[in-house]
Amino acid sequence: MSFQALQVSKVGDALRAAIVQMDETELMPGDVDVRVEYSTLNYKDALAVTGAAPIVQVFPLVAGIDLAGTVERSTHPDFAPGDAVLLNGWALSQTHHGGYAQRARVRGEWLVKRPAAFDAQQAMAIGTAGYTAMLCVLALEHGGVRPQDGEILVTGANGGVGSVAIALLSRLGYQVVASTGRLEDTEQLKALGASDVIDRHGLSAPGKPVGKPRWAGAVDSVGSHTLVNVLAQTAYRGTVAACGLAQGSDLPGSVLPFILRNITLAGIDSVNAPQAVREQAWQRLARDLDPELLHRMTTEVTLAQVLELAPLMLKGQVRGRTVVDVNA
User: Could you give the percent of the chain with pLDDT greater than 90?
Assistant: First the structure.
């Protein structure tokens, strides 16, 4: 049986992404076959599809770091035909065929049973970006940051991680400050739960090693000078969860915030997180994320539209969450 997929191939030194027809014999090894219903477009997906970063390591390869669907065949003891499942990260879109296809064959230990609170479309409206946002919230809680301690900054507020982080934190009682380069979206960010919106340019240029304390903690998906300035303005014993590098992978800063204010910088990895952590994150998402807010921040597109949207995402021109209907 043939099916459509978005495949990244290498032609000389250039990468090329295109919609192709594949056969089930081309699927990679795994003990669970999944009929994929939805995937999603994350920043990492945009890097992979455009070739802007060396995400894809084996060619040709189906892109897409997320998938949600239904088990069709399984020899794994934890899964049976008919189970609703989702998958975030692991080797997808790097060395193993990803979620931008109507069929997937994967390792059972990569899968999570989809919480009953979400259908497949909602699970992918959350996707890796939303799951990463939940990991950031868990890191803030682990660091002892409480709603009464002060404001929480969310950088990259219009992106997938930022949007979900704002929704989660506000519902948990935190006062959220959203940092964005698109102040024209202030009302939308406040509708998600932000109590204040600031211009990202105040954080993106080189600054002082230590500044006036402004927030009790932060979720940063930007990196580089932005993360350095966030750390410099975090209050005593605050926690900053770092999960992205939209501005850059460098950290041109000082140790002073760490040794003078006892700041914790918590690195967030969504790709290889242990299964118990994944399950905890998805259970908390089912409990703490307002489905109506999720609906408001989500746009649904076809597999072919991913090719158009990926370059725009890298330019910061895609808002909220983008769900991909792989069967459309």
Answer: 93
> DSSP alpha helices (H): ranges in 214-265?
224-232, 256-261
Structure tokens at 262: 């006892």
CATH of 2-114+297-325, one of 2.60.120.560, 3.40.50.2000, 3.90.180.10, 3.20.20.70: 3.90.180.10
Round to whole Å and give the CA distance between 288 and 300. 23
Q: Residue 206, Cβ neighbours under 10 Å: how many?
A: 10
Burial 76-88 (b: 16+ CB within 10 A, else e): beebeeebbbbbb
C-alpha 8/C-alpha 57 separation (Å) is 10
CATH class of 128-267: alpha beta
pLDDT computed for residue 13 by the predictor: 85
Cα pseudo-dihedral 328, 164, 184, 215, rounded to 10: -160
Contact status, residue 27 vs residue 103, Cβ threshold 8 Å:
yes
